[in-house]
Amino acid sequence: MTLLKRTLHNHPQIKRALKSVAKSAGLFRDSPANDFYRDLAEVKTRGDDAFSKLFYGYDGDHLINKWNHFLPIYSRLFAPFRDGRPDGRPLRFLEIGVYEGGSLDLWRRFFGPSAILYGIDVDPRCAVFDGHAAQVRIGSQADPVFLRSVVEEMGGVDVVLDDGSHVASHQRVTFETLFPLLAQDGLYVAEDLHTSYWRDYEGGYRRRGTFLEMTKAFIDDMHAWYHDRSAQEIGRSIGAIHVYDSIVAFEKGGGERPFHTTIGTPQRPIDRVR
Questions:
Q1: How many Å apart are CA 58 and CA 155, to the nearest integer?
Q2: Which is it for strands 238-244 and 247-252: parallel, antiparallel or unpaired?
Q3: In what side-by-side order are the strands of the sheet with 116-121?
Q4: pLDDT tens, position by position, 142-169
Q5: Does the CA dihedral 195-197-202-208 come out positive or negative?
Q6: Is residue 20 part of a domain?
Q7: Is 223 in the active site?
Q8: Average pLDDT rounded to a whole number, residues 45-73
Q9: Total of domains in the chain
Q10: Cα(27)–Cα(21) distance, rounded to whole angstroms?
């Protein structure tokens, strides 16, 4: 990633300022599809789900940047975990990418005081957020040893949210390391996957090795019962895959060969059910 693009990605306020200058000079025409720059008062009227209400009502001291269409997706995906784990123990939530600390603050408000929240970031400056709303550990998401050490410290992990570098090779290493460590019925979410199409993030349209292309392969692996191609071991432990615009969520499950059952009383002669 170029220095300019990295700066604009990490500091959206600079991006907004540059856009304002460009618009004043007649160099930029706004797009009605670009919600990022819309008036906040108008955008806030769109969502009445739990996470949208928390996000738009945020009054904390830290910066948060989220795509607006992610908010109701978060509500839908994470609703089953708001009250902790099914066995009554606290949720163990790991976010990759701390940014300015606001996201972890919001997750604390969403999941409550008993949740075990950890964030990791490669930027040592993020250590200042350790102990604020969550525990913060400094290291690379592309380092499997570091990732495993964090999960061990957490006592396991139920939910992972990858909002880190968005670089394809980093995303793959992170998934391949953490998904096997995920608790049964846990959830692994990767976001900002539009970067799978961008060269600066090792992406490109249908380019091999991107997270989205990996996801497509895992769909085949989930259905390995029905074809004669080899499947990755991880694929057999995926219970479901949810695909949204720029978000993919993997449920941990599966493993048992599917079967079907016939019930009821036949009213006519029938062939044996396959």
A1: 30
A2: antiparallel
A3: 135-138, 116-121, 92-96, 157-162, 182-191, 247-252, 238-244
A4: 999 999 999 999 999 999 999 999 999 9
A5: positive
A6: no
A7: no
A8: 89
A9: 1
A10: 9
- Give the closest residue to 109 by CA, choosing from 167, 60, 144: 60
The answer to whether residue 209 is domain-embedded is yes
Angle at 173 between CA 73 and CA 76, to 5 degrees: 10
Query: Is 194 part of any domain?
Result: yes
Place of tokens 């784990």: 85
pLDDT for 27 equals 45
Q: What does the pLDDT read at residue 38?
A: 60
Is residue 23 one of the residues assigned to a domain?
no
What is the three-class DSSP state of 247?
strand
Length of the chain: 274
Other Cβ atoms less than 10 A from the Cβ of 44: the count is 14
State how far the Cα of 62 lies from the Cα of 105, in Å rounded to an integer. Answer: 8
Quickly list H helices, 57-178: 70-78, 102-111, 144-154, 168-178
pLDDT band at 21 (very low <50, low <70, confident <90, very high): low
Model-wide pTM > 0.85: no
Q: Which CATH number fits the domain that encloses residue 104?
A: 3.40.50.150
Q: What was the pLDDT predicted at 30? A: 45
Which of the residues 166, 170, 223, 242 is marked catalytic? 166
C-alpha R_g of the chain: 21
Q: Residue 189: beta bridge partners?
A: 161, 249
Q: Is 47 helix (H, G, I), strand (E, B) or coil?
A: coil
The residue assigned the tokens 């739990």 is 50
CA torsion sign for 42, 80, 190, 255 is negative
* Structural domain of 246: 46-252
